[in-house]
Amino acid sequence: MHHNSRQPKPTVQTLYEKTHMFSNPTHRRQYALLAALALALGTGTAALANDTGTVAKNSDNQTVTVENAKGWRLDQLFPDGSGSQHAYVEIVLEVATDTDLITIGVLPDGPTTADSVLAEAAAAMVDLMEPGDADQTESPAVAKAHQDTATEARDALTQIQLGNVNVMRATLTKSSSVPQDLKNYVVNTERSAADASPEKSGPAVPNAAAAAGTCGNIWRPSFMTMKVKASSVSGTHYAQLEFAWNSVTRLQNLQACPAVAFEPDFVTYNYDNLHYMTKTIKSWSTDMSEGYLDTPFSDSDDERVYTVGTLDAQFLNQYESYYTYIRATNGNSSTDTAKMVAQRAKRNVPFCGGSWCVFAQASERYPSPSGWVNIPVSSYTVTR
Q1: What is the domain extent for residue 363?
Q2: CA 45 to CA 12: how far, in whole Å?
Q3: Is 129 exposed, middle or buried (0-12, 13-18, 19+ CB in 10 A)?
Q4: Contact 92, 105 (CB under 8 A)
Q5: How many domains are contained in the chain?
Q6: At a CB cut-off of 8 Å and minimum separation 6, what does 49 contact?
Q7: I want to staple 65 with a disulfide (CB 3.0 to 4.6 A). Which of 12, 173, 250, 258 is the partner?
Q8: How many CB atoms lie within 10 A of CB 57?
Q9: Assigned domain for 3 exists
Q10: Residue 110's CB: how many other CB atoms inside 10 A?
Q11: Of 205, 209, 213, 207, which Cα lies nearest the Cα of 253?
Q12: Quick check: is 312 in a domain?
């Protein structure tokens, strides 16, 4: 189990609410250049074409995001006692335990209240506490990862039940009113208030490890595990990934890459249009620093990708397990197949500090080189 101090959350650019605007890396880079020019000229992005040739939607016309490195109380988001005046698209919470800092994202699909946000966050922790019967003989490292995740979730659930949560970021529809306490924290197109915080989790001197590695050499996690099951919330399913670097050299190689981010993908087979989960995500969570939900806008629907990543892989530690969790509404099939993909990515720092400009640099498939895992599954581990 690792120890997180409070860290800044990823900047959310008001022009770009969605991460990975384009599935094609080349088109992403082209878009980044055009977007930077658009910002410099004071124009919007509505005229920029996406990789299918249609017009990219300017999300700034639809939503507004507020962000606070110190956090708000949850009741500050609902000053009238209800959510009727404030249409939230996403609310990102931090829950501090004795040993960790858990990030939980809640995505309401209509008017919401403080109690319903807490209920969604609690449900995520209940799912993470659910034991999984191993489908294989598990190594001690994998068994410990399961135990650590469950312990973190149990501790976080206690804090949620006590109402001890901080709201770090919230996105509202443009047409709804922004609560008074949040109005001075609207994220601009340059940098957000959260970027000013120097506190981050991870190694005390992260660059020392990076200096010993070689970008491009083997960097992948030592193992990845998936647990995919029905949620404690009726009508929804969830996918939970766990992973760790039990090789110091591999993590050093990852951290040697400039502006490096890390994205563990959960991918389902949808060539037959039969899917265990829809794209309607209800909540997400991770214990990685600077976690964010990647919305795979314009990705191919043949393989559905669900991702919670970290903007800064410098703050990952060797010999420590991490998890990601995504819960979505039930699909049109009670079974499916899936794979896991570890992605080394790069933040396009000259253009922004936000999660929208994280570009894939390399990927590793689990299982490799091919094959799909039948889901639902209580626990399935691939060691590489």
Answers
A1: 25-377
A2: 16
A3: middle
A4: yes
A5: 1
A6: 55, 56
A7: 12
A8: 16
A9: no
A10: 8
A11: 213
A12: yes
- DSSP at 59: G
367: Cβ–Cβ under 8 A, 6 or more apart, which residues? 339, 373, 382
Contact assessment for residue 123 and residue 88, using Cβ atoms and an 8 Å cutoff: no
Residue that the structure tokens 């200096």 belong to:
211
> In this predicted structure, which of 137-151, 179-193, 315-329 has the lowest mean pLDDT?
179-193
- What is the tens place of the pLDDT at every residue in 43-77? 333 333 322 222 222 344 588 899 999 999 999 99
Strands 260-269 and 303-310: antiparallel
Q: Distance between CA 321 and CA 138 in Å, rounded?
A: 14
Element at 343 (helix H, strand E): strand 336-347
Residue 11 belongs to a domain: no
State how far the Cα of 212 lies from the Cα of 256, in Å rounded to an integer: 8
| Arithmetic mean of pLDDT over the chain | 79
pTM value is 0.81
**Residue 1 in domain:** no
Residue 117 token pair: 């946000």
Long-range contacts, stretch 50-55, CB < 8 angstroms, 24+ apart: 50/21, 50/22, 50/298, 51/22, 51/23, 51/24, 51/27, 51/298, 52/298
Contact 16, 263 (CB under 8 A): no
- Count other Cβ atoms within 10 Å, centred on residue 21: 25
| Strand ranges, E, within the chain | 63-72, 88-96, 101-106, 166-173, 223-230, 236-244, 260-269, 277-286, 291-294, 303-310, 321-330, 336-347, 358-366, 373-375, 377-383
Region of residue 192 (phi > 0: left; psi between -120 and 50: alpha; otherwise: beta): beta
Count CB atoms within 10 A of the CB of residue 339: 21
Where do runs of H (alpha helix) occur along 162-294? 206-211, 248-255
For 330-363, the pLDDT digits (tens) are 999 999 999 999 999 998 765 555 566 788 899 9
Distance between CA atoms of 249 and 255, rounded to whole angstroms?
Answer: 10
